[in-house]
Write a structure and sequence with these properties.
Elements: H1 12-24, H2 28-41, H3 46-58, H4 68-75, H5 81-101, H6 106-126, H7 133-147, H8 149-156
Helix pairs in contact: 1-2, 1-3, 2-3, 3-4, 3-5, 4-5, 5-6, 5-7, 6-7, 6-8
């Protein structure tokens, strides 16, 4: 079987740019592969970790075996508290939306939305000046909930914990 070939440290910026392009072309497996090559060359490369989280979440649903656990494991490698909370919210938000697209019952979704909102709120408190990314994601979640009243009804149902067996850690 052929062996993987390493990339040089000098190639990392170009490789990261290619990974972003593959994500934009809706080819997250290609982006994931590039990120793994970057991380093999430089194991704690923060931009590659973020790109890998995003490429992983791009694969949620669609019959993929990718799940939130794999993406959340990557969060532990991020050094910045803001980024851990912000991308934690991204993982929850993308997971729940993928589950709903695939026909999951609203009761599965509510806890994931609450977790995403908690992460975005915490990220907002940690965000650097001029960075309102967490606010933008919070607002996107709220608008999504406004468009799906069945989810809001599930959130307000007495005794609803909001999480399925896939409860985020």
């Amino acid at each position: 079987m052929p062996q993987l070939k390493p990339i040089s440290s000098e190639a990392i910026p170009r490789a990261l740019s290619k990974a972003e392009r593959y994500r934009l072309l809706d080819e997250p497996q290609e982006a994931e592969s590039i990120c793994l090559d970057i991380l093999a060359a430089q194991g704690d490369h923060q931009d590659a970790l973020v790109m890998l989280i995003l490429a992983t979440t791009d694969q949620f649903g669609r019959g993929s075996e990718k799940g939130p656990g794999e993406a959340r494991d990557l969060l532990l490698k991020l050094r910045d508290k803001y980024e851990r909370r912000y991308y934690g919210g991204i993982i929850c938000e993308r997971w729940v939306k993928a589950q709903l697209r695939d026909g999951a019952h609203p009761s599965v979704a509510t806890g994931w939305f609450l977790e995403a909102l908690d992460d975005y709120e915490a990220a907002q408190a940690l965000s650097p000046p001029g960075n309102d990314d967490a606010v933008l994601r919070w607002n996107a979640c709220v608008r999504y909930l406004e468009r799906h009243p069945e989810l809001v009804a599930e959130l307000e149902r007495p005794g609803s914990e909001g999480f399925s067996d896939d409860r985020p850690v």
